[in-house]
Design goal:
Low-confidence stretches of chain A: 1-18
Largest sheet of chain B: 8 strands, mixed
Number of domains of chain B: 2
Radius of gyration of chain B: 21 Å
Mean pLDDT of chain A: 84
Helix content of chain A: over 70%
Structural class of chain B: alpha/beta
Distance between the termini of chain A: 36 Å
Largest interface: A-B, 25 and 33 residues
CATH topology of chain A: MetI-like fold
Order of helices and strands of chain A: HHHHHHHHHHHH
Number of domains of chain A: 1
CATH class of chain A: Mainly Alpha
Oligomer: heterodimer
Largest sheet of chain A: none
Number of helices of chain A: 12
Strand order of the largest sheet of chain B: 6-7-8-3-9-10-12-11
Shape of chain B: globular
Strand content of chain B: 15-25%
Mean pLDDT of chain B: 86
Number of helices of chain B: 11
Chain lengths: 297, 336
């Protein structure tokens, strides 16, 4: 192989590597906070997956003699009012919190995106109707509506997920619909239509991928929002059923002993704060990385 | 039978301010393997004519009346789903802006393959091979590499080549090119035009080319139709129209191009004024406000369309009407 062949091959190698994804990853990587956020979230996800192996004690084991003991060598984060190990309960609670966050965002982003796509693309009275429904739902504070739904259905983690999903999709629908309105006027959509591409294909292969960036960003923030919402509902006693722990319910328990054992509320608070901040950093980083105006920088 | 016959096409846009008569009583025919150029200033209805052929007039626009006979089938009467079968197979379109005419989030190869899978019964491998073959046909160097590229990795000229490949891959009978070279620089323009001409000849496609560049017309066209304010004012064989332009508007358009033999110090002719707003077009001949040879009748009545001599040279202007033959002399006496 002579020199010029190698040159061409090398060039091909480089052009091939430079896809959209690697562009985004390159820009994302330069945002230190976002990378830290990503590492933190990865750690928490690992904790949630391997919770069973990481918990130093049985999170349900009651030990009244050792109740409300502060952080010590045996119990790193202390014990609660029934003498249960706080660290173990927080680790198990990670599972609940992340699960709620991911499921709520997964469902509401999917549903919201599809509704937004159809509404924006159809236009006319369909769009009007859907957007008025969205307006109505947005007019209520989401948490209040979720509260009402859970109050009707009764407490429980599934009901929390349902309630948060029912109020969560509207944000996505609105954003996606706005994106669709701009994208459907683009010339490549006219070009696709003029070459006889089916409506469904235009919708999902031409419009959706180009509307994806804001959805991804919104979803990242959405997970943080859902975790806080679950914590709030659990804090109010409408979330997980005791004795199952979630970060919000642990906070709720801590509230009662805040004068004698403040660490009971401080640690769950720190967990929530760290995860929510990490997710927000990721969201910020993704937003910058996906912004087409910054593409060539 | 002509490949395409547009008869008395009227396309109106119903806006809040009023009805815009973007295309008003336009008729023309296109034979097989023929190139027709639609020329005229911006906003005179060229693009709307093209879009109505391919059925892409959307709200608030509407085809009010007329026929678009494509191989004898009236496209105006077809249902959307039936019309879709013509798009991309029998009739293809190239757009003005190669920068925005490709889906930025899909690789160009995928977009071509998609088109093939949509319309033809081919396997993915066959489609891919065909796509690469056509990328070679539109003279893209490194066709295989380009297949895997995203639009933003290609230059404007390359993207327009991809668009042409997409438009011609189904070997359509009719190609509509809406100012395909306007957004490109001059050297690339020529290459693209030559490419369109070569492929047209090798595939036997008829072409409707929309442009306001008379140079392009001279290069490519067999026939030319000059549009003004939603109407065709003059049409005919390209040599006939260029040699013997009759309508004052055509004369103005041709006079506004510098030629090699134009004397050094002479001024180029420009047509004063702008294209009238089509919500409330001028009465009579729509060009009368800007016409240097206006007659009284021009302000009152629409000029009839007539054929000059025994050629296909058609014109809509009072100057050449029998009843007003005398008027031309009067006009010349006063000097224009």
């Amino acid at each position: 192989m002579n020199e010029s062949d190698g040159g061409i091959e090398l060039q091909l190698f480089f052009t091939k590597k430079k896809t959209n994804f690697s562009d985004v990853w390159y820009r994302f990587r330069r945002n230190k906070l976002a990378v830290i956020g990503l590492i933190v979230i990865t750690l928490f996800i690992l904790v949630a997956i391997f919770a069973n192996y990481l918990m130093p004690y049985d999170p349900y084991k009651i030990d009244i003699r050792n109740r409300l003991k502060g952080p010590s060598k045996e119990h790193w984060l202390g014990t609660d009012d029934l003498g249960r190990d706080v660290l173990s309960r927080l680790i198990l609670g990670t599972r609940v919190s992340l699960r709620v966050g991911l499921i709520v965002v997964g469902i509401s982003a999917t549903v919201g995106t599809i509704i937004g796509l159809l509404s924006g693309y159809a236009g006319g009275w369909v769009d009007n109707l859907v957007m008025r429904i969205v307006d109505i739902l947005l007019a209520f504070p989401g948490i209040l509506l979720a509260l009402a739904i859970v109050a009707i259905l009764g407490p429980g983690i599934d009901h929390v997920i349902l309630a948060l999903t029912l109020t969560g999709w509207v944000g996505y629908a609105r954003v996606v619909r706005g994106e669709v309105l701009t994208i459907k006027e683009e010339e490549y959509i006219t070009a696709a239509k003029s070459s006889g591409i089916k409506k469904s294909v235009i919708l999902f292969k031409y419009i959706l991928p180009n509307a994806l960036s804001p959805i991804i960003v919104l979803a990242t923030f959405g997970i943080a929002g859902a975790i806080i919402a679950e914590s709030s509902l659990s804090f109010l006693g409408l979330g997980v059923k005791p004795p199952e722990p979630s970060w919000g319910s642990l906070l709720n328990v801590g509230r009662r002993y805040i004068m004698v054992a403040p660490y009971l509320s401080i640690f769950p608070g720190i967990f929530i704060m760290v995860v929510v901040m990490a997710l927000n950093f990721i969201g910020d980083g993704l937003r910058d990385a996906l912004d087409p105006r910054l593409r060539n920088k | 039978m002509a490949l395409l016959e547009v008869k008395n096409l009227r396309v109106y846009f119903h806006t809040r301010e009023g009805t815009v008569k973007a295309v008003d009583d336009v008729s023309f025919t296109l034979e097989k393997n023929e190139t027709l150029c639609l020329v005229g200033e911006s906003g005179c209805g060229k693009s709307v004519t093209a879009l109505s052929i391919i059925g892409l007039i959307s709200n608030p626009g509407k085809i009010e009346s007329g026929q678009i006979l494509f191989e004898g089938v009236d496209l105006v009467k077809l249902k959307k789903s039936e019309l879709r079968k013509f798009r991309g197979t029998e009739i293809s379109m190239i757009f003005q802006e190669p920068m925005t005419s490709l889906n930025p989030s899909l690789k160009v190869g995928f977009q071509i393959v998609e088109l093939l899978l949509e319309h033809f019964n081919v396997s993915k491998t066959e489609a891919k091979n065909l796509a690469v073959e056509f990328l070679k046909k539109v003279k893209i160097p490194d066709a295989v590499g380009t297949y895997d590229k995203y639009p933003h990795q290609l230059s404007g000229g390359m993207r327009q080549r991809v668009m042409i490949a997409m438009a011609l891959i189904s070997k359509p009978s009719l190609l509509i090119a809406d100012e395909p070279t306007t957004a490109l620089d001059v050297t690339i323009q020529l290459q693209i035009l030559e490419l369109i001409r070569d492929l047209k000849n090798s595939l036997g496609t008829s072409v409707i080319l929309i442009t306001h560049d008379m140079g392009v017309v001279a290069n490519l066209a067999d026939k030319v139709a000059v549009m003004y304010a939603g109407k065709i004012v003059e049409s005919g064989e390209v040599f006939e129209v260029f040699e013997n332009p009759l309508h004052p508007y055509t004369v103005g358009l041709l006079g506004s191009i510098p030629k090699l033999d134009t004397p050094k110090n002479s001024r180029l002719i420009s047509i004063p004024g702008n294209v009238p707003r089509l919500i409330n077009p001028p009465k009579g001949c729509r060009f009368h406000e800007r016409c240097s040879r206006k007659l009284e009748i021009c302000e009152i009545a629409e000029p009839p369309e007539m054929t000059i001599g025994n050629s296909n040279h058609r014109i809509a202007c009072w100057l050449y009407s029998d009843e007003f033959q005398g008027a031309v002399d009067t006009d010349e006496r006063y000097g224009s």
